[in-house]
Amino acid sequence: MDVRSLDDSAGEVDQGPVGPRPAHHGRPDPDIARFIADALGGARRVINVGAGSGSYESAARAVTAVEPSPSMRARRSVGLPRAVDAVAEDLPFADGEFDGAMTLFSVHQWSDVETGLRELRRVTRGPVVVLTCDPDRVRNFWLYGYAPEVLDTEARRHPSVATMAAALGGRGSVRAVPIPLDCTDGFNEAYYGRPEMLLDPAARQACSAWSFVDDGVRERFTTRLRADLDSGAWDERFGHLRGRPYYEGSLVLVRAVPEGEAEVPGPECHSSW
């Protein structure tokens, strides 16, 4: 998921302390990109709300990007369309103007998630795809034993799946997003089998939750994880993850279609409505 894909804010108009995500720690992952493209189901004209620097926009054929942050709009590459300066809660588009919609790790930063999702539904006649974290699953990751403050922050920031489903209406499903072992995107669970990577401050900087904890938390995390890696304690408990090709954690894709359209849950579906 690049700098903007998994952590930069759609609701925080200027990024301030979070800052840019190091490019080598946050590039769109091909597996995740395919998952998003499949969920869009061939929609031709797609709105991307909280678009940031344009990560994963290749998943759609034609994208209208919406991004309220001037700094994020400035980071968009030359080959991408200019982003519309607007917020999710007040989209300047007609009803049903788009075939599909996506918002990728930005809902937790919106000022009013329910209003924003209802707006997405209003302007979209096809699938609405939301890539986010399920707060009920965030703390299940091994990192919680080393930096609980970071994952507590993550869990508090993300809206519940039930809240999103109610706002989107229609028919929908919640699917786990399989994270590959060599994931190129820079979020915490991307390093599920490569714990050494999180000892690098630049890798942690790529995930905004680390910016909400103090230096003491980061120092304690580094000291304890390094000690457990040196002693072999981490591998005794979690070493099986080093060879697991995919990991299903808190990363989920919520997909909703209008009432009357069939939303058929796949084998990896967590729940549906």
TrEMBL record:
Pfam families (UniProt xref): Methyltransf_11
Top-level taxon of the source organism: Bacteria
Domain Methyltransferase type: 48-125
Gene Ontology BP annotations: methylation
Keyword terms: Methyltransferase, Transferase
MF GO annotations: S-adenosylmethionine-dependent methyltransferase activity
Statement: the UniProt record of this protein carries the keyword Methyltransferase: yes
Listed name of the protein: Class I SAM-dependent methyltransferase
Organism per entry: Streptomyces subrutilus
Record lineage: Bacteria, Bacillati, Actinomycetota, Actinomycetes, Kitasatosporales
